[in-house]
Amino acid sequence: MSSLHNLKPDRVVKDFERAGWTVRGQKGSHVKLTKDGNKHILSIPVHKGKPVKQGLLRNRIAKAGLTVEEFLRLYK
């Protein structure tokens, strides 16, 4: 399994969009994504020069109904 270390937030948001999620807005440095048929709202912190933390990303991947492997395939 590949690692979730040092994934860039802008790229993470784009990959969730590839998985069918839609950006619904941004409040401060957090981008909110939603998807029809999923009750969760994903909030991704987009801090310039900082990667998304691994634990937070694992949580968001699970809420999105994806596995880490599926998400990493989108990231490539």
List the helices and strands and how they pair.
Blueprint: H1 9-18, E1 22-27, E2 30-35, E3 38-45, H2 54-63, H3 68-75
Q: pLDDT below 50 for ≥5 consecutive residues: which ranges?
A: none
Helix and strand element order: HEEEHH
CATH class placement:
Alpha Beta
Average pLDDT metric: 94
What's the tally of helices? Answer: 3
Compute the CA-based radius of gyration.
11 Å
How many β strands by DSSP? 3
Protein model, in words:
The model has no long low-confidence stretch (mean pLDDT 94). This protein has one domain: Metal Transport, Frataxin, Chain A (2-Layer Sandwich). Helix content is 37%, strand content 26%. The protein is globular, with a radius of gyration of 11 Å. By secondary structure, it is α+β, with helices and mostly antiparallel strands. It has a 3-stranded antiparallel beta sheet with strand order 1-2-3. The longest helix is centred in the first third of the chain and has 10 residues.
Name the descriptors.
76 residues; alpha+beta; Metal Transport, Frataxin, Chain A; three-stranded antiparallel β-sheet; 3 strands; 37% helix; globular
